[in-house]
Known about the structure:
The protein is an alpha/beta fold. The chain is 46% helix and 16% strand. It is globular. The model is unreliable at 1-7 (pLDDT under 50).
Amino acid sequence: MGETKASDSGAFSGRKVLLVGTGGIGAAIAHRLAGAGASIFGTYHGNRDGAAALEAQLPAGSWAGGARLDAVDPAAVQDIAGSDGAAAKALGGIDTLIVTTGHRHELKVLKDTEPELLREILDTELYGPMLLVRAVLPAMLDAGFGRIVLIGSDSGKAGTLGDAASSAARAGLAGMARSVARETARSDVSINVVSPGPTDTQLLAQLLADEGFSGKVMGGTLKAVPKGRPAHAEEVAAAVAHLASLEAGYTTGQVLSVSGGLTM
């Protein structure tokens, strides 16, 4: 787990990455990019211990710092991700933003979902990423270079039973990325979305263990994957690494499904 492919060795040397979300998929991305030479500033929302454990696992000198971040608070986002924020100061600038955040919740059909939860999911999975992209863009555009990769979900394409708010947020994430791609296309700044299907993380394990509606939905979704298994977090990280690479500058405004053929 977390091993760097030989072809990646040094590919991210000198790169300055703000990674928002350091659990599951985020940790795999950190291993991949740090192993290829990147410096990482990682943020977390609630799992401080997980971020500390990740720091200890990465190559010496690759972890530039970390901080708690409430990504739906505009002032907090600027304090971390802005041109004069903590991440830019620790890294010496930010040339790469990767956002992996998602909202953990039980699945419920829309008519049974409380309005407060709907707003919370939309804020976490759409408004927060939008604030982060907004915060890093000025410096990237001034520098003439930047890579932004957002982790979405194939629910944004196909919808998920009992997850209307998250599916709406993920579809919105793709629309936002396409709009920003048009706004930044004349510079070497790209923005793309990687959309995993079911991925072998602690969250998936918790959902599958649920004996109620959530477990039934996720179990059915996993059975529908043509590959017959969930994604490994490292497979998602590989897609992120490509889109964040120097060579991927001509790819922007795209949504790449890493879902074992669940959506085609």
